[in-house]
Amino acid sequence: MLVLMVGESVISSHHDICENCVCRQLTIDCTNNSLKAVPPNIPPNTTILILKDNNIEEIPDYIFNQTSLVSLDISNNNISYLSRNSFYGLETLITLKLQHNRMDFTVSYPDDVFKPLVNLKNLDLSSNLVLSTINESYPNRALRHLKSLQELNIDGIPNLNLGEGFSNLTNLLHLNFSGNCQTSNIYNNTFVPVSHIHELILSQCHLRLIHNSSFGVFTQLRLLDISFNINLGIDRAFRALRSLNSPDLRVLDLSSVVDPFAVGIVISGVNMNQIKHLNITELYFNHNRLELIELEAIPQIPETLQVISVLDNRATYGWYLFGLENLINLVCVDSSQQYSSHDPESHHTPQSSRYVSSFSKSRDNDSTFCQKMNVSSVDLFNINQSNISSLPAGKPLEIENGLHTPALSSLSFNLKNFTISVPPNIKYVNVSKSIINFPIPNMRFGNNSVKLLDMSGNILNRWEGPIGGVTKLEWLSLSNNFCDYINETFFDSFPGLRELFVASNFLAAVFEADVKGNIFHKLQTLETLDISENKIRTLPPALLRGLVNLKKLDLSKNILKAWTLDIDHMKDLRYIDLSTNQLTSLPVQFRNYGDSQYDANKELTVDLSGQTLRCTCDTLPFLKWMKSNKTIFVRRDDYKCEDNKKKELTLSNLDAIILQLERQCASLSVMVTILTGSLFVIASVLIGSLIYRYRWKLRYFYYLTRNRYHKAFPLDDNENTQFEYHAFVSYADEDRLLVTQDMRQKLETEHGLNLCIHHRDFVPGEDIAANILSAVRNSKKTLVLLTKHFLNSYWCIYELNMAKVESISTGRNVIIVIVCERIPANELPEALVQLMRADSYIDYTDDPEGNVVFWANLRRSILAD
User: What residues form the membrane-spanning segments (predicted)?
Assistant: First the structure.
């Protein structure tokens, strides 16, 4: 019975607290719930309790009794004091966060308040100190019980006197005073009670003076951070390090130890001499207005250095740059954000780079470029443009105050014939957003191991190249450089490049002109290409012909209206970003590629967000393809499209859109079919009518062309050409005697005319139609012997029409009609009637007296022009 009651009590309490808080397995999260008190009856199996960002004013005695908490977060509340038994029962607690409350060191911590916390390793009391006096002291009697403590974050008081409470923290490794630090002076004996710690952070402490032997007490120190103490000054900062003899020191942060508006900061040989004995591997000297390093200082730089960070300074060109080649262990350099401006009104000081204890094996989110590279083990291909630089990929660079780096633009030697020496083992270099302003020339670097180079956010507006000595480069960013020209050979010397970012430039014209794909054709190892935000309207199909191993292509934020690229050779392409363009659909070539990737188990992902697609009959196949789910579309349900009436639709209703379009397009298809058939019939009738009307002219020109091609007959269009015959006689076979006897006798024998008579003069073996055309063309006149037999002869009518077309095409009076017998007009062809009405004709007669006149008139007509 007792067990059942306890069980019911646990279930009831768990139900009560989870009504207002988020409960996940053994974690209860009550963040920002406007709680005014710690919830009672916390389930005993809870291991993590989060009560931050509330209005809790006290922690009652025994409130956590009978719990198994491992982590307790009550930060950012209104707690002003603790009770003696506030943490009673928390023997298993490892992490306690009390930062951002209102607890005073003098009165808020009872002597035994931390006594139950026998296993506490991490304690955060920072950002509690609001107002302090010179006599402020730490709650030493309360802190003395924390013998297991390894990490302590606490505000720095004006008189940084660490009493007996700190002496009992024998396991303390990480000590951070940077929460609300008001310490201005550090004395020689300040850190004697904690001389065994590994990490000391004094960032943002308003330090003005550090006595020369203050750090000499440390024997195991691994990290020292005195950054963002702008009143300390560079000389005092370096002098304080002279006594530091910890052989284990690896990280030294001297960022922002001078005023942000200081002028002409130089690291001297004397400065570097103060730290040359240290075995540091990481040196941070950010935000210090540094302009030069004296040549005397270069040989004294610790050879153990692997990381140098000098971002947000004012570096100028000098020969000291070439002395850095002797740093044989240097792996990473961050020289980004040079010549950045600062707000004089707020005199703003950036937040410190906070270091998490070395036991956590990680760094804070504020970590710098080289920390993100993790130097020893970096996966280049999980690095995005945006997490290297605070300027995201594709965002335009805002140049502040238009300054120019007085450096490489004024070199006095020819880079083409000069090898630029660099540290041999350097792998990661960041010179982004430094207003470097010059074209990239033909240049060569000495032996190096550079894998990653970030030159984004500068003004490298022409990329001439080629560049030698970059054979190991795998990651390159040239985004945000105002570039409008790339030499076709610029990328020829990057055999191992795997990720290339050239976003936010002005490369549209360059890419549009590269119809042969020469710019990128040698980048056969490239896996990621970002050419977003380049104002690209169209791309030639062969632009990416050499990128056989590409996996990710970013074309976002351009003004593409159609997909034109050929990507069939890219067998590993997995992601294409086409967002924020002006595309209305994707062509069948693209769709077929997506299907082929799906069939090869290499599913393609496409982003088409940020543009209005078309939902019409023309794009229905595309919409059906999207529905097939063979290609993944990022946030497809958020896509928008327009129908024919400009009505905006969302693709969250894609099935309904397709169904409606299928209905509309089906009726439209029937209408189109009917219209198409009708147009075809009308066109056929019109064409047939035209062919029939101009059939003789078509035949004329056909045989004219045929005769010219075969050269069967001499045809000449010259008006001055002498005709072979005076007349071609067109007659029916039944009327042959009139031609062979009378006409030959009267015209050829008596008058010397040359007649073309088809029984006699046609070329054997040649088409009759071709012979007729040749006879008409090579005769001055065509004599038509009009009889009923003539009208009944197909070839006679053919000869008449050919002669008529010849007359029209040449403008000559070709036809002479000889009426051999009277035929009613209604029996004559219309063409012959029109001809006889327009021109006179000759009546044949066999009367002896009239016959003489007939032959004389006929001879005269034949010879007339």
Answer: 668-692
The gap between the terminal CA atoms of the chain, to the nearest Å, is: 140
How many CB atoms are located within 10 Å of the residue 119 CB? Answer: 14
DSSP letters spanning 543-604: TTTT-TT--EEE--SS---S-----TT-TT--EEE--SS------HHHHHHHHHHHHTT---
SS3 675: helix
DSSP-assigned beta bridge partners for residue 818:
785, 842
| DSSP one-letter code for 638 | G
- The whole-angstrom separation of Cα 691 and Cα 229 is 98
Residue 759 pLDDT: 85
Q: What residues pair up with 200 in beta bridges, in sequence order?
A: 175, 224
Q: Is the CATH code 3.80.10.10 the one for domain 436-583?
A: yes
For the chain, residues classed under CATH 3.40.50.10140 are 708-863
**Per-residue pLDDT band at 808 (split at 50, 70, 90):** confident
Pairing state of beta strands 290-293 and 265-267? parallel
Say whether pLDDT at 845 is over 50: yes
pLDDT at position 346, please?
59
Residue 197 CB burial class (10 angstroms; 0-12, 13-18, ≥19): buried
Domain 708-863 has CATH 3.40.50.10140: yes
**832 pLDDT more than 90:** no
Q: Name the DSSP class of 857.
A: H
How does pLDDT run across 499-513, given as a tens digit for each residue?
999 999 999 999 999
Provide DSSP, 238-281. HHTTTT---TT--EEE-TT-S-TT---EEE-HHHHHTTTT---S
Output the pLDDT for position 352. 38
Contact status, residue 87 vs residue 123, Cβ threshold 8 Å: no
Q: How many residues make up the chain in this entry?
A: 865
Asked if residues 724 and 778 have their Cβ atoms less than 8 Å apart, the reply is yes
CB 801 within 8 A of CB 790: no
* C-alpha triplet 311, 312, 316: angle, nearest 5°: 90
Q: What share of the chain is helix, strand, coil (3-state, %, to 5)?
A: 30, 15, 55
The type of residue at 43 is P
DSSP H stretches of helix in 628-694: 654-693
The token duo for 311 is 């971002």
pTM of the full structure: 0.73
Delimiting residues of CATH 3.80.10.10 domain(s) in the chain: 436-583
Model pLDDT for residues 466-496, shown as the tens digit of each residue: 999 999 999 999 999 999 999 999 999 999 9
Give the model confidence (pLDDT) of 187-208 as tens digits: 999 999 999 999 999 999 999 9
Is residue 511 within 8 A of residue 534, CB to CB? The reply is yes
Report phi then psi at 219, rounded to 5: -115, -15
Q: Tokens at residue 671, please?
A: 């209408």
